[in-house]
Amino acid sequence: MNSNNSDSKFKSWNSQIAVRLGSYSLVAILLVCVAVALAWLIEYIFPDWNSSYLPWATFAFSLEAMYYRRIIRQKKLSLFDREFWLHRGAELVVLVLFVRIFLYIVNGVDQFIQDFQGWPKNWYLLLDDGEFLGVTLFLTLVWGISNLFGADLDHLQTHPNDIHWDTISELDLDRKEARNQLVGRMLSLGMVLILVTVIVRLNAGQILGETGFSRAATLNLLVYFGICVVLFSFTQFALLHGRWYWENTPIDGNIGVRWVRYGMIFAGILIILAILLPTMYTTGLLESIRFLLSLIGYLITLIYFLYTALIALLYGILSSFSGREVMPQTLELPNYQLPGKLLNPNDQMLIDIPIINWLLSLIFWITLLIVIGISLTHYFKQNSELFLKIKTMPVITWVLSLFEWLFAAFVGLGGHLKQSVINSIHLLSNPLREDVISRSSYLSLRKLGSREKIIFYYLAFLRRSRDIGAKREPHVTPNMFRNKLAPLLPDDARQATSTLTEAFYTARYSSRQVTPEDVTPALSAWKKLRQYFRKLRKNV
Amino acid sequence: MRDIFIFFLIFSLILASLTQDRIIFTILYLFLGALLLGLYWSRKSIRSLEFERKMTPYAFINETVQVDITIQNTGWLPVPWLKIQDALPNEISEFGSFRQILSLGPKEKRKYSYLLAAKKRGYYRIGPFSLVTGDLFGLANEIRSEIQPEHLTVYPRVVPLKFVKMPSSSPIGVIRNLQPIFEDPCKCAGKRDYLPGDSMRRIDWKTSAAVGRFQVKVFDPSIDLQVFLVLNLNLDDYETKFKSSAIELAILSGASISRWVIDQRLAIGLHINGIDQGNPMRKFDVIPPIKGRTQLIRILESLARSQSGNLPPITDVIAEYGSTLGWGTTLILITGSAHEKLLDQLFRLRRQGIQVVLIICGEVSKLSEISFRAKYFGIPVYSFVSEKDLDIWRR
User: Cα separation of B356 and B210, whole Å?
Assistant: First the structure.
């Protein structure tokens, strides 16, 4: 078992390294997306400048920054170490040199030769270049952001040396905080990216042409935010992995691989869905609601028609058993039409709207309403006192109770309809069975005898227990059920269960007369249990 | 994390409304989809999990019990991560709780097993089995579900006894008795010549015809032993210093005597003045005297579940159940000490025709005084300080 455990730990450790390398590359691609948008903006401002190399340079800088940061971290160098400044200084020189050479390669060797001749006199010519300074400034920014991302990613990794039992909870909080920072950075950068893209799109035609740029910008944004979603997944894995590692919980070796696979698949599905979903609407909100209600009306009519047809069929079959002739009856689907036309406000003429446009508009409005709903929920969760105050206002209370009533009625109607259809199908499959027809569920407790009353209370107790998840299986005796339930109940409820069970045994199995005096303790026990179950359901 | 996320959604919504830009709507859909998927996924995952724990609910001391756990994802959506944990008592588990992190693909089933070592008598709770899962993106809260615990009963140790000297006044049984008062008509020892006064029923007509003179059957005397064991686990009746070992010894003695009685094909009943860990009322029901192996298992189960505590005095228990015992029954009381009131009560029972045996487990300060008084009342007293003392019945 030990060898298996260490083997699985080794595998999961490898998967963690794979996730880390993947995360570094993804962060670099994120920054490339930003660089692409920025390049568009620069090209828009300075049309002569060819900035196509900027994304590549960004990718290289970003990876270098995160890699080098890790090396310094592994050497455990602090800001006060001389070696730290030596490493950073060397890195700076190499990077500046890299930018300079890179620009020479991109702009042509002529520039290099010209500068090379002037250097002995004016060495500062090396720096006296607007493009060089601008690119260096941008890449320095990339370098800094990559370092921050790298710090967060490293913070999320699990290090065996971090395990100190007294600080584990603090460490876990730190790591959560690191993840929040990372997500915050990604989304903040995303907002900047959106703003830049929107600004450039306003004059898009001048750069790439309307369609070409629109596609490129959509792709760039989708890649960025798609990677964000994947990174959410990776960082969540890193966070959880650390916690499991410290808890010394055995981890399945394949969990990392599966995590990456699922993360990619679901991010892909989300991206495809986001592309496919409508981004514009042809009909307004109220018109869309009208369409929705019409659609529901149509579906109800259709169900009613099917139900009537089923009853007619059933009637026909039963009549054929009795030998009577049945008059043939033709059932017709009601002529119900979905809204297909809309009044054009400009010329007051009816225009045809294809059903797909209705549906797309509906999806659009539903999405917007969900966002608003989530935002409101979040706001009220943050300000729960305000929510409680609003909830207690008389008008709101009345509206809420009305809504609850309507909702319950709707759910009840749906349930009855479903049950009726199921019963009809059962009856059709076996018309001679009587028990499939549900009998009236109304029961007058007053008309019941003492014995039946106790049985009723016990059955009600079983129903309530089932509702809270403690179902009595058919093979379980009342005594066994009482014993099973006992550890879950407080003392008084346990006592009540016992009283009710004993009363049930007497009522159900004994031949002695059950008097109203026997009902009283059973009733009080049932009331106590009902109260307890209600409280439990509220808490749940 | 969700705060930042929702802020971003609101930002995108506002920007989308202002600019009417399709791209932003696409991004909005992407993030809204991730949030909704995260929320739906974790809830769906926990609902589609099926769990089964297979184990033998009973074990004898020093046996190993294998617990097989099967967990299956019945849905089509994978469970990206799942933490399972089965809470186990330290007494039977060497590694603490059973824990595992796993990932389940659609319709995938996993099996795990672990061993429990039944080292000590008891009624152990296995579980609850908890499942914790969440979404891939960390947007939804972790969801936990718990499955009801099961129990493992570890029977107490039983010492095989050869002969336990128990007084009984019930005639006609299976144990030979030297006092020729109760003759068993099923146990014919031989024949002899008829003497005036012999019952006509005793005449063996076939032998008489063969011999030519009246012959009567001679029967072996025997006694029946119907035993009712009362085990007192009231902490007040045990010496504080040795109570733990004394209580275990009392349970061991009870289990061993029960086995011997059942082996003799006699009836035995039990009442424990203790806490029943398996009963929600925490009280033991009386096991009426019955013969057979099933009865032994019933008794061992009760002994396994028993726990000491601050309970009603043993005199109350004897007063409650003593009157229900039949004439000739042998009452064996296993306790930690015996005070005057208890001895008086036992003597009263003896006068009612119930044979009483007193077994005192553990160190007792006034043992000689108790023995003297008990002997005066005609109650045999056995004192066991350690398991070795049971050897008197093993020879």
Answer: 48
